Amino acid sequence: MLPDADKLGRGTAAMMLLRDLVHERTGLHYDDGRCDTMADRLAPLVSARGFGSFLDYYYFLKYDPAGEAEWVPVLDALSVTETYFWREIDQLRAIAHVIVPQLIQRKGVARVWCVPCATGEEPLTLAMLLDQQGLFERGSIEIRASDGSEAALAKAREGLYRERSFRALPRHLLEQYFTPEAGRWRVVSRLHQRVLSWDRVNLMDETDVRRRGRVDVVLCRNVFIYFSEPGIRHVVDTLAEVMNTPGYLCVGAAESLLRVTTRFDLQQIADAFVYVKRTHGEAA
């Protein structure tokens, strides 16, 4: 039986404190209409740790040194990992057909960071497109993937997917890049290895972002819909400081940065819209 979030203090002032702490640490924003969702997802963790209320859990996360490690399961519980191959493909085509070839021609290398990568469908889709273009043989391409959820990363590292992940992928690409295995599909190793690393990153942690963010292209899609405007601004400002120039920032089709930053220009590249870093100069 699932723990009863009402008995743990759903709707109390303690729940609001916990909500604000989650927002501060992860960027995930739960307004009053979505607080119940957060309560339901965290209730099993609260009970599993032996706490009797959300207030106890709040104090544990905020003040107990052991609480720092607890953010790993918190992010596992709160992360939305629904994704699929070939999602919002026009942007990925613009990267593979226009941006990466230009970067390779100009400096011989293209560095791409996908964050959050969820269970890996997005960076692997990009790797397919680049492979189809023969670009891995024309220059150095570095694809790295990160997410806040260690559970999602474990699935991405495994590279084994159910049929629902392929609902938009052309069938010939499924047969080219995946092999059937016990009712699921495993990505072939030569494609999986194109993603050089899968690591845990908290987008609200400047140290995490700076460690990975000195790249040419950042795919940060369909996460800002869960962030507050100040949280989005915090992440985008950090990216603007560390990304190479020119730097290309991709957000989801339902997301816009026009009200939160002047550090990127929205440009149409091929059939997609991409934010391009405004500042001048060249980064290594």
User: What low-confidence regions span 5 or more consecutive residues with pLDDT below 50?
Assistant: none
CA radius of gyration is 20 Å
Strand line-up across the major sheet: 6-2-1-7-8-10-9
Distinct helical segment count: 12
Average of pLDDT: 93
CATH architectural designation of the largest domain: 3-Layer(aba) Sandwich
Category from helices, strands and their pairing:
alpha/beta
Return the CATH topology of the largest domain.
Rossmann fold
Task: Characterize the quaternary organization of these chains.
Answer: single chain
CATH-defined superfamily of the largest domain: Vaccinia Virus protein VP39
Question: How does this structure look, described?
Answer:
The chain folds into two domains: 74 residues, Chemotaxis Receptor Methyltransferase Cher, domain 1; 189 residues, Rossmann fold. The strands form two sheets. Strands 6-2-1-7-8-10-9 form a seven-stranded mixed β-sheet, covered by helices on one side. α2 packs parallel to α4, α3 packs across α5 and α6 packs across α7. The longest helix has 19 residues. The mean pLDDT is 93. 43% of the residues lie in helices and 17% in strands. The N and C termini lie far apart (54 Å). It has 284 residues and is an alpha/beta fold.
